[in-house]
C-alpha cells in the first residue's frame, strides 16, 4: 500500500524485453536506501516487486498484462519515473490510500500556465471521481477539481510539478489512473443492498398500483 507522495524521481537505465514481459533497470538512490529483494516500490503508480538492488538503483520485472494495462510499455531509456516505497506501519498518510493497481490509462488533454491540468477519463470510472475527492495519476495523490463524464481536472502546485513527472507532461501524453480504492470497496459492499432495495421498491410500486386499481 502507498500514499501517493512521490519520494524520488528515478530514471530508466535499461529495458530488456522478453516474450513474457520486460525487465526494467531504474536509477534511484532514495527508495533503495533500505530496499531489498521482494520489496514493493511503486513506479509511476504501478506496484512492482524489486528483483535486485543494484549499486545505483534496482531492477523490476513487468509481465505483459501489466504492460498492457499501464503506460510502462511506453518507457524508454532516459525517461523519468515517479518512485515511492510501500508505506510502513506508523507512517504518515500524507496523500490517500493507494494500492498501486492501475484502473486505466488516460491522456493529458490540456495544461495551463497555472498548473490546471485536464485528463481524459474512461466513462466507466467517472462515478468514482467527486469534486475534492482523491485520484492517483502516475502514482501522485491529487485532489479532483472538476469531474465530468469523460474527463477530469486537477490543480498542480509548483512543488508537484517540480518533484514529479507531472511537470513534464504535455497534451497527448498517457498517464496511469487509479481511482480511490475506498470508493470501490463501498460500491462493492453496497451493491447487493441497493439491488435488493431496487427490487423491493419495484414490487411495492406494482403492489400499490394493483391496490389502487382494485379500490376503483
TrEMBL record:
GO molecular function: riboflavin synthase activity
Naturally occurring in which organism (per UniProt): Actinopolyspora xinjiangensis
Lumazine-binding repeats: 1-96, 97-190
Pfam families: Lum_binding
NCBIfam families the UniProt entry points to: PRK09289.1, PRK13020.1, ribE
Pathway info: Cofactor biosynthesis; riboflavin biosynthesis; riboflavin from 2-hydroxy-3-oxobutyl phosphate and 5-amino-6-(D-ribitylamino)uracil: step 2/2
Keyword Phosphoprotein: no
Catalysed reactions, semicolon-separated: 2 6,7-dimethyl-8-(1-D-ribityl)lumazine + H(+) = 5-amino-6-(D-ribitylamino)uracil + riboflavin
A biological-process GO annotation: riboflavin biosynthetic process
UniProt keyword list: Repeat, Riboflavin biosynthesis, Transferase
EC number annotated for this UniProt entry: 2.5.1.9
UniProt name for this protein: Riboflavin synthase
InterPro entries, per database record: ATP_synth_asu-like_sf (IPR023366), Lumazine-bd (IPR001783), Lumazine-bd_dom (IPR026017), Riboflavin_synthase-like_b-brl (IPR017938)
Positions of the Lumazine-binding domain: 1-96, 97-190
Entry function: Catalyzes the dismutation of two molecules of 6,7-dimethyl-8-ribityllumazine, resulting in the formation of riboflavin and 5-amino-6-(D-ribitylamino)uracil.
Record carries keyword Transferase: yes
